[in-house]
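This part of the workshop introduces the protein records we will be handling. An example says more than a description, so a record of this kind follows:
>
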Amino acid sequence: MEPLLEVRGLKKHFPVRTGMFQSEKKSVKAVDDVTLHLNRGETLGVVGESGSGKSTLGRLILKLLAPTAGEIFFEGTDITDLSRRQMLRVRRDMQIIFQDPYASLNPRMTVEKIVGEPLLVHNVVPASEIPDRVGVLLEKVGLHRDLADRYPHEFSGGQRQRIGIARALALSPKLIVADEAVSALDVSVQAQVVNLLQGLKREPELSYIFIAHDLSVVRHMSDRVAVMYLGKIVEVATNQEPVQKSAAPLYARTHFGRASPQPKAKKQARNPYGEIPNPIDPPSGCSFHGRCKHAMESCRRDVPQLVDAGDGHLAACPVLNPPSVAART
């Protein structure tokens, strides 16, 4: 079956100036040669530390940012170079849930206008039918339809995020990019919103790209998980093949600081040594080698390629993929 979304060699480089007199021109490779696909009805989790390029990747996929290079195919159609007018036809099928429920809603608009705006812009239903459609959408996300005449400041963070989800669902999209959709919420509210998003997956052919830095939330939501580090996809695995079992668990390294329900319980994963490198001047070879206890001399010299480590587990790591395995793939 043809994938819903396919990304090939996607790049986004932001030019910057460095040096004492800001005369040296360099670039931040926020997304650097990313290739991935998303099947219909699938949830692909994208996890990584802050600054790894997750949100930039989501915005590139939705064409909210113009890529430096690469191709984006949606339902088999190349949308990479479509104009804003041409993209308007595609936008009905591609929506986003923003990270900050406080900043993503217009404080001067009522909930009815916020949720109903996509219906009005795309001329989906007559204006007279929008209030009833908004009421249906609010009930779908667990809010009463009588709340439609209120303003965003009258709601809690979790309720505001539900309003944002209702707005994303208004056009019955095929793809929703959830960009850190629960990271700004309390833990109890996170669980409610995650369960809501999972329940909405019963919609026919609704697919998610679920972006987060909390591995436990991503694994709960996703069918497959992709790990990003300094703009690259460094590992991909299914939830049926936990990457924590691997020799050099990049997947587990992103899972730092997870809270445990048992106060005296030991953390299941620790912060990797050191800080994320400067993205303007990344290290040579594997960009993770300075923080990895498994690093070899070749890691400092050669850039690892994303290859099959078995059972559908892809990893850009020579420890997981010794030369004999890499050669066979």
The chain has a mean pLDDT of 83.
